[in-house]
Amino acid sequence: MSKKIIVAGATGNLGGKIVNALLKNGAEVVAITRLKTDKNKINALEKKGVTVFQIDTSSIPEIAKCCKGADCVVSALSGLRETIIDAQKILVDAAIRANVKRFIPSDYAIDFTNLMEGQNRNLDLRREFHKYIEDKPINVTTIFNGPFMDLLTTDMPLILFKHKRILCWGNPNQMMEFTTTKNIADFTAQAAMDEETPRNLYIAGDKLTCNDFVELLTKLTGKKFKLLKPGGISLLNFLIKVTRFFSPSKNDLYPAWQGMQYMRDMMEGRVVFQKYDNERYSNIKWTNVENFLINENIKLRIN
């Protein structure tokens, strides 16, 4: 029997990939979108066979109607407090009203459970939402996946292609985990269709240290890469404070200092997974960093 899965945030990058993975696995997919959502995006979903409800997403009764008969509600919402806290509170409360048994929140991040409060704004919001859902009468499953591997060639300043350097704060042998958004979507879709999942699931497409990146980039490009070590974690913490003071950008999702907070958390060693659930769904083909970079034609970036 087909599973009915509700997706909030289906028009976004990760949300769209989750929708595709659900459809591939035979799910009945229902997307909840805002009244102001672009019609072209809605049409694109409907062409795939997705049922789309364009509603007032601040209304618990309206969302609950859309969730009726669903097996799981998946949130792929992205934003700050009004989204991660306010919108997700409404979403989970509506799911409960509709007697949906399972909920997957929009976490998809490093394991923030061992981080100190006040050190990473975006992850603090997710931790605050977790406090809200702890005692709710619905089974919640968080998916921790480390940083998005896709960011290695876009917004994450770890690989400095032009300078042939790997940026390293602190210990160059500190392990870091990465997962492609495609793999995250594939895993999330199967977790959503799974009748029983634990509170937390941990996945990683690959795990490397800064020294590993030096060796890998040297191998793949034929050019000698080296470490760039401006200083330790304490210096990075100081730079985060300075950057945040002079350029607060409070309403931006990823201001410069937010990216620096993620780098600090990755390289400080507090977020390394103690176990992995990659084998839970055996049909997923995991992409490692080497294959990802090859597919991205990284040689073009160093010329």
Structure in words:
A 6-stranded parallel sheet has the order 3-2-1-4-5-6, sandwiched between helices. It has a 3-stranded mixed sheet with strand order 8-9-13. The chain is globular. The chain is of the alpha/beta class and 303 residues long. Helix 1 (13-24) links the parallel strand 1 (4-8) and strand 2. Helix content is 39%, strand content 17%. The longest helix is centred in the first third of the chain and has 17 residues, at 81-97. The chain has a domain at 4-146 and 179-204 and 272-284: 3-Layer(aba) Sandwich (Rossmann fold), CATH 3.40.50. This is NmrA-like domain-containing protein.
Looking at this structure, what is the CATH superfamily of the domain at 4-146 and 179-204 and 272-284?
NAD(P)-binding Rossmann-like Domain
CATH topology of the domain at 4-146 and 179-204 and 272-284: Rossmann fold
SSE class: alpha/beta
Number of strands: 13
Report the portion of residues in β strands. 15-25%
Total number of helices: 10
Query: What's the pLDDT, averaged over the residues?
Result: 96
Determine the N-to-C terminus distance.
Answer: 53 Å
Looking at the chains present, what oligomeric state does this protein adopt? Answer: single chain
What percent of the residues sit in helical stretches (DSSP H or I)?
Answer: 25-40%
Q: Which of globular, elongated, flat, extended, rod-shaped describes the shape?
A: globular
- Rg, Å, rounded: 20 Å
Low-confidence stretches: none
CATH class of the domain at 4-146 and 179-204 and 272-284: Alpha Beta
Query: What is the makeup of the main sheet?
Result: 6 strands, parallel
- Record the strand order, biggest sheet: 3-2-1-4-5-6
CATH architecture of the domain at 4-146 and 179-204 and 272-284: 3-Layer(aba) Sandwich
Helix-strand string: EHEHEHEHEHEEEEEHEEHEHHH
Pfam families: NmrA
GO molecular function: oxidoreductase activity
Keywords: NADP, Oxidoreductase
InterPro entries: NAD(P)-bd_dom_sf, NmrA-like, NmrA/Isoflavone_reductase-like
